[in-house]
Structures are given as structure tokens and as C-alpha cells.
């Protein structure tokens, strides 16, 4: 596993004892380095706890005027929550522990969202799921040509969480109506690049990867505004933006089956994109896809706090479904990528089962 070259100014941060994060404070900047490169910085309970402790201490420390979050991996910022142990615990029926895991994670995300000091995240690599939770809610999200962003949970029989039912429906515009692009990203788990992330507002800045070490050194020297002024370059073009009209037509309203059927029948949308999107939607957990559409619709009219609370209830119930155990097995445990979903088709999902995931009665 490659490691970023040692920073010329600061060197690598000393490890927190027995921890997958490193921290330091210098020149008024509190820095968290995610340091679990072998797991692409997937967030386990200890990381969630340790990052939150640092943020809480720095929030109330007048010597800290800004927070920087980086990674020691040259491949990933953070691939998500560490869901393999969550699967184990769920298979043992220990749903109180499942709930504690997600509650801890969302509490951290909420702290980022309400952080009273400038919060800067450097997303120089894979950034998925929980990785968005500790970045997108902050003020500054810097991308590079190595950034790959996604909310890929429907591929593992889970649902987009970490507050995404608040920010995905609001990507482009502020009306209560659910944004079609957010619906598309949440349902399909589509991977997007820096240009796309900037076009939809998930990212705020672009810096070429080769300049990231100098950029972060400038921030560590206590000069984050200068760093942005000096190193930020224009956003690359977005291929996703070219698809906005198609995405609007397909994902703008209606049920999941309406959306799939529009991919089949609309003749004025890009045929290659329609085919890829149809194949993707048909390969993901049908239950997860239906639950995600409902999460996005409800999230469009909810506060962030309400979204976290709803996501927590839904996440714990989804973790009890066979699709979660099967999806995590197929993608992350055995890596066979051959999940057998139950029910197997979008047409076979029972609306009553989806309502039950939301606690409706
Ligand atoms: C969907 C997900 C995750 C995923 C892949 C998906 C996820 C996650 C990881 C991941 C990746 C590499 C690791 C690891 C976990 O992949 O949440 O431990 O080494 O954490 O399609 O939701």
C-alpha cells in the first residue's frame, strides 16, 4: 500500500496510541490524518470515537482556529464506514450494538455539520459513504483528479446515510422537491469525479494532486485562506453535468418502477447512459433501491437533524434484512460480487416491507 511522501514541513504525524488516526495542533490548525490505509480508511468504531474526541477538544480550545482532515493513503480519503463488523454483529442479532455504531458515526457527522470553526477536508482519492459524512458537512471540501466520490450503499444491501438524505435532495436548488441528480446518485451509487462533485456542490475546490502536499503544508503553517488563493485551480469539466437533462427526465419524480420504465421508453435520452443506468439499477438490492427513494423523498422536506434520526432508524432495520448480510458478503467479505437479493427484482418489492423499514403503521 503506497503512502504519501513525507510532508516537507511537518513529517508524518505521530500515531495516537493504538489508533487508526494521527493528530497534531500547530499554528492554530488542528489536523486529523486518517491512518488505516490497508482498509482505505474505512471508519471503525475507534476511528469514529477518536476523530470526535479531537474535534470536541479543538472546538473548545481557543488555540485552534481551523481543522484540517487528511489521509495517509495515496489511494483513499475514506472508503466508508467499516461495515464488515456491523454485518457480524447483525448476524448475531445484536441490534443494540448495530445502532450504537451508526449513532456514533452520525453523531460525528453532526459535529462536523455544526462545527463552529473552519473545517477543511482534502479528498485526494476514494471518498465514499462515511467518507462523505466527515467531509461534505464541513465548510471546505478539496478535490483532485484522484477523487472518486460515491454513495454506493445500495450495492451492499444498505441505504445512503451519514446525512445524505438531507444533502442529496438539495444538490442543485433549495426547493422542497427532491433533486433528481441526488436521487440518481443515491439510487445507483454512481461514481463521480472532481469536476462532477464541484458541479453538484459536493466539493468546493479543486487542487491538482501533485500540489496537495504543498497545499496542506501551507494550511499547516496556519494559512488556509492563502493556501486556497494560491493552489486552487479551475474546476475540470463535468461529464455528469452533460447528463443533467437526462437525469431530470428519468429521476425527477415518480416511483422506482416509473424511473426504470422511463430508461426503457424515453427516446430522447442518451442510449449508452440509459443502458448503463438500467443495468446498474437491476444489479443493486431491490429493497435498498426502494428504501433509498423513500429516504430521499422524505429527506427533501426534513431538517438535517430529522434526517439523521430517520436514517438511524432505517439503517438499523435495513441491517436486519438478508440483503445487508448478503451484500456485504458479496462485495466486501468474499468479494465475489454475486449477491443474491431477496426479493430479487424491483417489481417484487412489497410496499408494506418498505413502510416497515420506516416504522410506518
Ligand atoms: C458500498 C459501501 C462500501 C464499500 C463498497 C460499496 C463501504 C465500505 C467499503 C470498504 C472498502 C474498502 C475496504 C473496506 C470497506 O466499500 O461502506 O474495509 O477496505 O466501507 O459498494 O457502502
UniProtKB/TrEMBL annotation:
<dbReference type="InterPro" id="IPR032259">
    <property type="entry name" value="HIBYL-CoA-H"/>
</dbReference>
<dbReference type="GO" id="GO:0003860">
    <property type="term" value="F:3-hydroxyisobutyryl-CoA hydrolase activity"/>
</dbReference>
<dbReference type="InterPro" id="IPR029045">
    <property type="entry name" value="ClpP/crotonase-like_dom_sf"/>
</dbReference>
<protein>
    <recommendedName>
        <fullName>3-hydroxyisobutyryl-CoA hydrolase</fullName>
        <ecNumber>3.1.2.4</ecNumber>
    </recommendedName>
</protein>
<feature type="domain" description="Enoyl-CoA hydratase/isomerase">
    <location>
        <begin position="30"/>
        <end position="358"/>
    </location>
</feature>
<dbReference type="Pfam" id="PF16113">
    <property type="entry name" value="ECH_2"/>
</dbReference>
<keyword id="KW-0378">Hydrolase</keyword>
<dbReference type="GO" id="GO:0016829">
    <property type="term" value="F:lyase activity"/>
</dbReference>
<keyword id="KW-0456">Lyase</keyword>
<dbReference type="InterPro" id="IPR045004">
    <property type="entry name" value="ECH_dom"/>
</dbReference>
<dbReference type="GO" id="GO:0006574">
    <property type="term" value="P:L-valine catabolic process"/>
</dbReference>
Amino acid at each position: 500500500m503506497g503512502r504519501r511522501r513525507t510532508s516537507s514541513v511537518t513529517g508524518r504525524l505521530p500515531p495516537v496510541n493504538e489508533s487508526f488516526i494521527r493528530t497534531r495542533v500547530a499554528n492554530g490548525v488542528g489536523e486529523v490524518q486518517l491512518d488505516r490505509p490497508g482498509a482505505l480508511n474505512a471508519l471503525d468504531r475507534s476511528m469514529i470515537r477518536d476523530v470526535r474526541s479531537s474535534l470536541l477538544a479543538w472546538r473548545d480550545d481557543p488555540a485552534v482556529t481551523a481543522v484540517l482532515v487528511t489521509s495517509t493513503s495515496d489511494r483513499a480519503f475514506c472508503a466508508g464506514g467499516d461495515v464488515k463488523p456491523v454485518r457480524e454483529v447483525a448476524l448475531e442479532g445484536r441490534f443494540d450494538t448495530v445502532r450504537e455504531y451508526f449513532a456514533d458515526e452520525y453523531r460525528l457527522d453532526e459535529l462536523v455539520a455544526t462545527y463552529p470553526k473552519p473545517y477543511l477536508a482534502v479528498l485526494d482519492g476514494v471518498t465514499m459513504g462515511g467518507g462523505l459524512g466527515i467531509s461534505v458537512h464541513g465548510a471546505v471540501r478539496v478535490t483532485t483528479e484522484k477523487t472518486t466520490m460515491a454513495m454506493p450503499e445500495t450495492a451492499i444491501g444498505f441505504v445512503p446515510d451519514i446525512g445524505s438524505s438531507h444533502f442529496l435532495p438539495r444538490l442543485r436548488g433549495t426547493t422542497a422537491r427532491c433533486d433528481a441528480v441526488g436521487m440518481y446518485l443515491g439510487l445507483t451509487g454512481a461514481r463521480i469525479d472532481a469536476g462532477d462533485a464541484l458541479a453538484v456542490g459536493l466539493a468546493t475546490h479543486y487542487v491538482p494532486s501533485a500540489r496537495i502536499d504543498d497545499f496542506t503544508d501551507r494550511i499547516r503553517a496556519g494559512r488556509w485562506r492563502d493556501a486556497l488563493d494560491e493552489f486552487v485551480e479551475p474546476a475540470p469539466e463535468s461529464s455528469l453535468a452533460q447528463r443533467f437533462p437526462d437525469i431530470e427526465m428519468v429521476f425527477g419524480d415518480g416511483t422506482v418502477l416509473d424511473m426504470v420504465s422511463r430508461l426503457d421508453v424515453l427516446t430522447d435520452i442518451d442510449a449508452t447512459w440509459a443502458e448503463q443506468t438500467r443495468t446498474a439499477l437491476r444489479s443493486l438490492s431491490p429493497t435498498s433501491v426502494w428504501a433509498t427513494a423513500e429516504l430521499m423523498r422524505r429527506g427533501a422536506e426534513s431538517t438535517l437533524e430529522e434526517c439523521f434520526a430517520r436514517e438511524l432508524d432505517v439503517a438499523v432495520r435495513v441491517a436486519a434484512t438478508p440483503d445487508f448480510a448478503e451484500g456485504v458478503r458479496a462485495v466486501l467479505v468474499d468479494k465475489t460480487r454475486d449477491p443474491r437479493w431477496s426479493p430479487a427484482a424491483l417489481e417484487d418489492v412489497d410496499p408494506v416491507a418498505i413502510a416497515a423499514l420506516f416504522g410506518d403503521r
